[in-house]
Known about the structure:
Blueprint: E1 3-11, E2 17-25, E3 33-37, H1 48-56, E4 60-64, H2 82-97, E5 108-113, H3 115-126, E6 130-136, H4 142-149, H5 152-170, E7 177-178, H6 197-207, E8 216-217, H7 218-226, E9 241-246, H8 254-261, E10 268-273, H9 285-299
Parallel strand pairs: 3-4, 3-5, 5-6, 6-9, 9-10
Antiparallel strand pairs: 1-2, 2-4, 7-8
Amino acid sequence: xxxxxxxxxxxxxxxxxxxxxxxxxxxxxxxxxxxxxxxxxxxxxxxxxxxxxxxxxxxxxxxxxxxxxxxxxxxxxxxxxxxxxxxxxxxxxxxxxxxxxxxxxxxxxxxxxxxxxxxxxxxxxxxxxxxxxxxxxxxxxxxxxxxxxxxxxxxxxxxxxxxxxxxxxxxxxxxxxxxxxxxxxxxxxxxxxxxxxxxxxxxxxxxxxxxxxxxxxxxxxxxxxxxxxxxxxxxxxxxxxxxxxxxxxxxxxxxxxxxxxxxxxxxxxxxxxxxxxxxxxxxxxxxxxxxxxxxxxxxxx
Length: 301
């Protein structure tokens, strides 16, 4: 199905402008909608091939940059705040359903990857407009995932620096920041993952976007350790949940994901690929994209 892409911007409740793009069938009429968001520290262009796939299947899709990231407004820049991001995502849903190409009566699907996969789970549990959810390589438990991602010493450094950061912010100082990724083994980063080929390709794709700097606020890492979508997963049912995981994911760990998935009610489905976290987007797109498309076709149309 032929699709059309349109650059859009919309205001959140506090007036912050978020920017993205709609991907819609060129045929006349309105279509079931999907609202998508990128993961921790990412930007929208890294997942636009998913949006195109869904639109070609007959959905109207809204994909945008979180506040403080990419081409969206918002300060502090590069701050991942799950609670703010969920509020903004709900504003994005409101905007989408006001567009002629989105069928309000059909409700919405949500698709999130990595950290946004956890956000999508919570949104499905709390927002009645969400009819179906796809959580790809999701961070489902900040505590369980964080204790595998970071060493004890790194967690202590995060906690200590966060206390100082709070004092500094109250005094009017700039937020403390850390690299999102680093190849320096002794330097704290937000995502201390091995630098394999897929990781390096992901970084190259990020660096190709002038709107992406390699840092996040330290508070983002605090949120990464604290956010617990697992507590909400029993409340997603009876909305259909598809979870997609990587069997060798060393960023959002499959054993944690399986534990949390087991706590979800029906209907649900688990799909896996043999690769790691950053293999998901391109190398295993044929394993991750079509199942998500088919899940939406089964449960949203």
